[in-house]
């Protein structure tokens, strides 16, 4: 993707910058200490689509420390308001707190759990993974299990990719009755991994899609709280994005914003393979132009980034963005929405990998956009 | 499990109402007749019965002076799958398109009835294909496409056929509901159980909960256009702006040959409560809890992305509502021999009433 007519510092310009300065983001926003702990806690909390309450609780507890109003709507979206009643356009920042996972559909007489996917999986990913089965009335009791399949020795045709019918979850139960005493049909499941921060401040985790987006939205709002001249800012921590962007549709209806920015993750081209687009971890947030992402807001973000010397990358979308921006733009009578994405490798796997500095640059950019002169 | 000594699951009056609903032809887009039957019964229990511009029916129970009480919408869909006449050929045969999702293999050799014709009379006919003797060897082993079938209404020319039907007339398979099984069993076989049974359940649950003094406003809804993905339920729920929207539909149990992958789900073991997908976790927890506390039979299903019911649409209706789903187990869905156990119908009503009482008295 060329940046020649925007001058925002990607592409060839970005390559020369490799020699000029590292890290790319040199602004004041820093995710460390309590903020980093909060992000890691959020990443570690299991909350597949439809079962977002644990993540909602983490978000709620944090936001209560600094927001004017925090409440959960009947769908489960958490709505956080700062500068309540302030003049200017009501501005919504949204990230989704659900993640992909699995759900128990059947417990067989051998004590094995059969499951369906929650959201879109590459089904080669769960093979051999440990899982957390979230049981009990509120999903707080965690059982460890493993994804089972036939050993290679037992396979007739090793070249075939497995389907859901070829996999099950083994929770160590010896009989069907034992398993049924531990688990209920409909219990949700996530892969059993914890986040890891590399020495260079890159992070690998499951659920980066899109806890990082929700975190950025909240952290931006926290920094805008009480700022003179800032409008009312409402953070929508949306549910059920991974099953069709449904939570943001009702959530945006509740919030009734004048304008919005959705924050999500996007895939990257800085990995082996031929790529149709250009996106790198650590070279700044990706600003989407086209589709649901309104050109006006994209232009504003690009201009602000240039003025503040924040490196960004550009993404183009022709039809849908496959993010909550698609829902926000069609909520109520339509809401103008921008889309800021964190370049993240290995999406929809337990190895989602992003750079903290991209998140920091996003927060900086979004805060400046909210405070911009109108 | 049959127990001929105990009371029947539905009263004679209620069963008659269900059978009348089932027998009324109303494919998607032509729901008015089923809506009229449903409205007539609803008016026996409340004055607040209406039909909206789309054709959805609403029956509201509760005191409008209590705006602080929760508003609970229970949603079934009035429409069923069917066929629509798309072309009348020179020999007087009718070609048709499917309204909703058919297994075409089911259609061959079925009698049909065509309603809404210019004369107002019901036209009878049959879905035909080339006789097996004449069919070439290749075609015998294959399920035909719908455009290889036709409806024969006994007309001998295009003019004759055009005098009987017009393009766009809806058709359904010509069968009547029937109770089957040994003495004391409660199996009911019919077309249109998907989802007339849901419409029946929502009205019964709403009126019984109201009769028991539930401190809530309850609206039973028979919405339109589910089988064609039109999502009439979205419009209905947007219009109502309830606090809760619980759909009642049917779902396949896994207790028939080859069906066990679906889950450990059976006819006769109670309504199926779906956790996950577009259902709200708190609402489903409350429904399951209400069923447990009331000692009512129920079964659990887990779904990851879609439920395949109106809930998938309702969740996108702009509003403040939280969603739930109660499914009556039904075998052979989208055939003229859909089958339910009336005890499951009863238990579905009872679970909803128990849940409404708990929500209303919170």
Overall body shape of chain B: globular
Tally of helical segments of chain B: 10
SSE arrangement of chain B, N to C: HHEEEEEHEEHEHEEEHEHEEHEHEEH
Uncertain residue segments of chain B? none
Shape of chain A: globular
Concise account of the structure shown:
With 374 residues, chain A is α+β, with helices and mostly antiparallel strands. Chain A contains 9 helices and 17 strands. In chain A, helix 5 crosses helix 9.
Describe the protein in words.
The complex is a heterodimer of chains A (374) and B (362). Chain A has 374 residues and is α+β, with helices and mostly antiparallel strands. Helix content of chain A is 27%, strand content 24%. Chain A has 9 helices and 17 strands. Chain A has an 8-stranded mixed beta sheet with strand order 1-2-12-3-13-16-14-15, with helices on both faces. In chain A, helix 2 packs antiparallel against helix 5, helix 5 crosses helix 9 and helix 7 packs across helix 9. Chain B is α+β, with helices and mostly antiparallel strands and 362 residues long. Helices cover 28% and strands 25% of the residues of chain B. Chain B contains 10 helices and 17 strands. An 8-stranded mixed beta sheet of chain B has the order 1-2-12-3-13-16-14-15, with helices on both faces. Chain B has a 6-stranded antiparallel beta sheet with strand order 5-4-9-6-7-8. In chain B, strands 10-11-17 form a 3-stranded antiparallel beta sheet. Chain B is globular and about 65 Å long. The model of chain B has no long low-confidence stretch (mean pLDDT 94). The chains are: A alpha+beta (374), B alpha+beta (362). At the A-B interface, strand 4, strand 5 and helix 6 of A face strand 14, helix 8 and strand 15 of B.
Write the SSE topology.
The complex is a heterodimer of chains A (374) and B (362).
Chain A: H1 11-20, H2 33-44, H3 53-63, E1 69-72, E2 78-82, E3 91-96, E4 101-107, E5 112-118, E6 130-135, E7 141-148, E8 168-170, H4 176-182, E9 188-191, E10 196-197, E11 202-205, H5 208-224, E12 233-238, H6 246-255, E13 259-266, E14 286-289, H7 295-308, E15 313-316, H8 325-328, E16 337-343, E17 352-355, H9 356-371
Parallel strand pairs in A: 3-12, 3-13, 13-16, 14-15
Antiparallel strand pairs in A: 1-2, 2-12, 4-5, 4-9, 5-8, 6-7, 6-9, 7-8, 10-11, 11-17, 14-16
Helix pairs in contact in A: 2-5, 5-9, 7-9
Chain B: H1 12-23, H2 32-42, E1 49-51, E2 57-61, E3 71-77, E4 82-88, E5 94-99, H3 104-107, E6 111-114, E7 123-128, H4 137-140, E8 150-152, H5 158-164, E9 170-173, E10 178-180, E11 187-190, H6 193-211, E12 217-223, H7 232-240, E13 244-251, E14 272-276, H8 281-293, E15 299-303, H9 311-314, E16 322-329, E17 338-341, H10 342-360
Parallel strand pairs in B: 3-12, 3-13, 13-16, 14-15
Antiparallel strand pairs in B: 1-2, 2-12, 4-5, 4-9, 6-7, 6-9, 7-8, 10-11, 11-17, 14-16
Helix pairs in contact in B: 1-2, 1-6, 6-10, 8-10
């Amino acid at each position: 993707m060329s940046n020649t007519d925007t001058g925002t510092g990607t592409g060839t310009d970005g390559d020369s910058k490799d020699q000029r300065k590292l890290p790319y983001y040199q602004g004041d926003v820093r995710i460390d200490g309590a903020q980093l702990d909060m992000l890691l806690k959020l990443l570690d909390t299991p909350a597949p689509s439809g079962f977002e309450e644990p993540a909602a609780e983490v978000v709620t507890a944090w936001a209560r420390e600094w927001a004017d109003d925090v409440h959960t709507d009947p769908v489960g979206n958490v709505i956080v308001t700062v500068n309540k009643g302030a003049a200017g356009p009501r501005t919504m920042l949204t990230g989704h707190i659900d993640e992909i996972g699995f759900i128990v559909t059947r417990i067989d007489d051998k004590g094995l759990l059969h499951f369906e996917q929650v959201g879109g999986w590459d089904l080669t990913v769960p093979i051999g993974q440990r899982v957390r089965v979230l049981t009990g009335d509120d999903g707080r009791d965690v059982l460890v299990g493993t994804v089972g399949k036939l050993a290679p020795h037992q396979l007739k045709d090793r070249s075939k990719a497995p389907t859901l019918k070829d996999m099950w979850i083994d929770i160590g139960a010896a009989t069907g009755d034992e398993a049924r005493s531990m688990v209920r049909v409909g219990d949700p499941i996530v892969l059993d991994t914890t986040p890891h921060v590399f020495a260079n401040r890159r992070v690998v985790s499951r659920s980066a899609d899109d806890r990082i987006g929700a975190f950025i939205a909240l952290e931006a709002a926290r920094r805008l709280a009480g700022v003179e001249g800032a409008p009312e800012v409402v953070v929508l921590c949306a549910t059920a994005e991974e099953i069709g962007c449904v939570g943001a549709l009702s959530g945006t209806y509740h919030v009734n914003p004048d304008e919005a920015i959705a924050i999500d993750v996007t895939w990257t081209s800085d990995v082996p393979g031929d790529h149709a687009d250009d996106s790198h971890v650590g070279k700044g947030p990706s600003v989407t132009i086209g589709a649901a992402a309104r050109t006006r807001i994209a232009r504003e973000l690009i201009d602000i980034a240039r003025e503040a010397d924040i490196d960004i990358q550009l993404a183009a979308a022709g039809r849908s963005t496959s993010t909550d921006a698609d829902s926000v733009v069609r909520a109520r009578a339509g809401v103008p929405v921008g889309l800021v994405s964190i370049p993240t490798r290995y999406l929809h796997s337990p190895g989602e990998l992003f750079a903290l500095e991209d998140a920091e640059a996003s927060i900086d950019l979004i805060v400046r956009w909210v405070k911009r002169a109108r | 499990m049959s127990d001929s000594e105990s009371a029947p699951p539905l009263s004679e009056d209620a069963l008659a109402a269900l059978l009348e609903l089932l027998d009324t032809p109303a494919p998607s887009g032509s729901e008015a007749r089923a809506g009229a039957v449903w409205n007539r019964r609803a008016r026996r229990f409340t004055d607040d019965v209406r039909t909206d511009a789309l054709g959805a029916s609403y029956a509201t129970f509760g005191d409008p002076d209590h705006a602080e009480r929760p508003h609970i919408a229970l949603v079934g869909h009035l429409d069923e799958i069917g066929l629509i006449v798309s072309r009348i050929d020179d020999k007087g045969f009718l070609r048709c398109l499917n309204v909703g999702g058919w297994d075409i293999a089911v259609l061959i050799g079925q009698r049909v009835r065509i309603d809404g014709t210019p004369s107002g009379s019901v036209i009878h006919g049959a879905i035909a294909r080339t006789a097996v003797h004449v069919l070439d060897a290749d075609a015998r082993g294959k399920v035909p496409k719908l455009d290889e079938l036709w409806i024969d209404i006994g007309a001998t020319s295009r003019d004759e056929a055009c005098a009987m039907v017009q393009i766009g007339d809806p058709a359904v398979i010509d069968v009547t509901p029937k109770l089957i099984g040994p003495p004391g069993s409660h199996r009911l076989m019919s077309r249109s159980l998907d989802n007339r049974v849901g419409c029946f359940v929502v009205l019964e649950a709403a009126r019984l909960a109201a009769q028991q003094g539930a401190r809530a406003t309850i609206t039973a809804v028979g919405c339109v256009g589910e089988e064609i993905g039109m999502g009439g339920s979205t419009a209905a729920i947007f219009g109502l702006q309830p606090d809760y929207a619980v759909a009642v539909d049917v779902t396949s149990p896994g207790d028939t040959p080859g069906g066990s992958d679906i889950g450990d789900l059976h006819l006769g073991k109670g309504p199926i409560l779906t956790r996950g997908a577009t259902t709200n976790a708190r609402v489903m927890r409350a429904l399951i809890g209400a069923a447990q506390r009331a000692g009512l039979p129920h079964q659990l299903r887990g779904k990851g992305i879609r439920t395949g019911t109106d809930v998938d649409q309702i969740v996108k209706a702009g509003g403040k509502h939280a969603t739930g789903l109660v499914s009556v187990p039904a075998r052979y869905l989208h055939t003229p021999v859909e089958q339910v156990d009336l005890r499951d119908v009863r238990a579905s009503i009872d679970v909803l009433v128990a849940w409404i009482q708990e929500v209303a008295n919170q």
